[in-house]
Design brief:
The protein is of the alpha+beta class. Helix content is about 35%, strand content about 25%. It has 24 helices and 26 strands. Strands 1, 2, 7, 8, 9, 10, 16 and 17 form an 8-stranded mixed β-sheet that branches. The longest helix is centred in the middle third of the chain and has 20 residues. Its cofactor is FAD. GO terms for molecular function: FAD binding; oxidoreductase activity. This is Flavoprotein.
Length: about 550
């Protein structure tokens, strides 16, 4: 162990979870090395994204980093709407009350700007205690001695040892998988998010959304415009851009053989959005990522030996109907992980840091938010095929439609009830059937049109920045049969059926008079979302430091 460079703490990742952990370690005077695989913080990160400061949270990002809102975020979100869409009919509800529940503030953010700002502060704080921050370093696994975790291994440096390791390396965490804490076996445990950052000057945003410079809006979209896929769309105002995207259950994308870029385009071209997007639509960046469904995968014991796991790496992403919160939970978890280690060390029990961290997540109420008891109690009933099928049938019937009309004055209040939101089942009912029936029965036809012509998938890929690791593909296709890996052809956000410029494509191989459908892979246009690791038979890891895609906006 003495042959390797040693730090008391190693933090992997400079997103909000890693930054919070590093800052808290610094507050306790703990020597910390922070490792980031991108060229800069945020260059590998994507988010919708809204960051919350919850009133009940023990830590918020502005507590740890004064000046955050003024320097690193975009706009405060002061208005929150959901639109139930059926064809050209729309019924909209104000969800600002739900949005403001337990909320001190909420801002829209762009990850490249936010994370790079955090990176600068983290570097300063870590240096004060004898540590520092290195970018362009891909941490690829855990270093073990006699079966026990003692440090990390990287592509670029010799192994590094530490007394505690905080994995804040995102949804595709190689450290969490190496420790056996997470896997990629079940598509129903994941969402896929796809996003476009759209250019729009501040004065145009003010005019089209009727807001001042210190105001922002969030719009959510659900109903029949997404080919029956479970999920919905979003629009958030930034300072001089818009974030527009979709978030869907990955198993539903696969089941419907939907193509993510087309689902995004369906939203962009809907006449409802014409009033906001105008005829000057210009995309700056296309991106995608997996999102863990915390209700199913948030780790109750996010630790193993010296390893403590935070944020998306621990499945700590709260996606419950219209409530989507992740970065705030990562901040809380990162700070609690560092606090737990410092307190365990003070008691001369550093080996108990992990269990102490897990206990803090429970006592601070984080786990109840991520894994709500109401959902866990009702899931076995509400997500059964028989029950969900009956509910959908009733909603579509004349009786169900009469009920929707009769309850029209109460529906907005029900949408704003946090306890009901936390129990929303992962079925067609809340994402497709209910909003469609609401739109059909209560909606008003949209009078305008959309003049948006979205870029082609080829153009979107071509506009991204890549540093291809020639000769060192980070994904290997283990089984190229269509049965094993064909789902990736349509589910990969930079691939499509009949499109030859993406990562995955279908081919027909003829041998000895027989034909076989196979899948081929080209990792050059990969946006590193991890979708194919779940839906195809692959060996998946991140590219080496600084290699692969580089997001300018995120």
């Amino acid at each position: 162990m003495s042959e390797y460079e040693h730090y008391e703490a190693i933090v992997v990742g400079t997103g909000p979870g890693g930054a919070a952990a590093a800052a808290t370690f610094a507050n306790y005077g703990i020597e910390t090395l922070v490792l980031e695989r991108g060229v800069e913080g945020g260059s590998k990160n994507v988010s919708g994204g809204l960051i919350y400061a919850e009133e009940s949270a023990p830590y918020t990002i502005d507590d740890l980093f004064p000046g955050f809102r003024e320097e690193a975020s975009e706009r405060p979100i002061t208005d929150y709407q959901i639109h139930n869409i059926a064809g050209d009919k729309v019924e909209s509800y104000d969800l600002t009350k739900l949005h403001e529940h337990d909320t001190e503030w909420s801002d829209s953010v762009l990850r490249r700007k936010m994370d790079s700002w955090l990176e600068d502060r983290v570097h300063e704080r870590a240096r004060e205690t004898g540590g520092g921050l290195l970018t362009g370093v891909h941490v690829n696994g855990l270093l073990r001695e006699e079966g026990k975790i003692i440090g990390v291994t990287t592509d670029e440096l010799d192994p590094i040892t530490a007394d505690v390791i905080v994995a804040a390396d995102g949804v595709n965490s190689e450290l969490a998988r190496d420790a056996g804490l997470m896997d990629w076996d079940e598509p129903e445990e994941w969402f896929q998010g796809v996003k476009a950052v759209v250019d729009m000057p501040a004065d145009v945003i003010a005019e089209r959304f009727d807001i001042d410079e210190d105001e922002g809006v969030a719009h959510l979209f659900s109903g029949d415009l997404f080919q029956g896929v479970r999920g919905g769309g979003f629009l958030y105002t930034n300072r001089e851009t818009l974030s527009l995207g979709t978030v869907f259950h990955l198993d539903s994308i696969v089941a419907e053989q939907a193509e993510p870029h087309e689902l995004l385009d369906a939203m962009l071209t809907h006449p409802l959005l014409g009033q906001w997007l105008g005829d000057d639509y210009t995309e700056l960046e296309y991106s995608a990522k997996l999102v863990p469904d915390s209700k199913k995968v948030a780790l109750r014991e996010p630790h193993f030996g010296r390893l403590l796991v935070v944020g998306d790496a621990a499945g700590q992403m709260q996606a419950q109907g219209p409530i989507i919160k992740g970065m705030n939970h990562a901040v809380t978890a990162g700070a609690l992980a560092a606090e737990a280690y410092a307190e365990a060390k003070a008691r001369s029990e550093p080996e108990k840091a992990g269990s102490h961290y897990a206990k803090k997540l429970r006592t601070e109420g984080v786990m109840q938010k991520l894994r709500p008891r109401g959902y866990e109690m009702m899931r076995g009933i509400t997500e059964g095929e028989t029950v969900s099928g009956v509910v959908d049938s009733v909603l579509k019937s004349s009786v169900g439609r009469f009920g929707i009309r009769a309850m029209s004055g109460q529906l907005e209040r029900l949408y704003n009830t946090p306890s009901l939101t936390s129990m929303i089942p992962d079925t067609q009912t809340p994402y497709v059937t209910l909003p469609t029936v609401i739109g059909e029965e209560l909606g008003t036809p949209v009078t305008g049109t959309s003049s948006v012509t979205p870029p082609s998938l080829e153009e979107r890929i071509g506009d991204l920045t890549y540093d291809t690791d020639i000769g060192k593909p980070h994904i290997k296709l283990l089984d190229n049969s269509y049965e094993a890996s064909g789902a990736a052809v349509s589910a990969c956000p930079v691939s499509a059926v009949g499109f030859g410029g993406g990562c995955y494509r279908e081919e027909v191989v003829r041998t000895n008079g027989s034909e076989e459908r196979v899948v081929s892979l080209d990792t050059q246009p990969c946006v590193e979302c991890g979708t194919c690791a779940v839906v195809a038979d692959t060996d998946w890891e991140h590219p080496r430091g600084n290699k692969g895609v580089e997001f300018k906006w995120g």
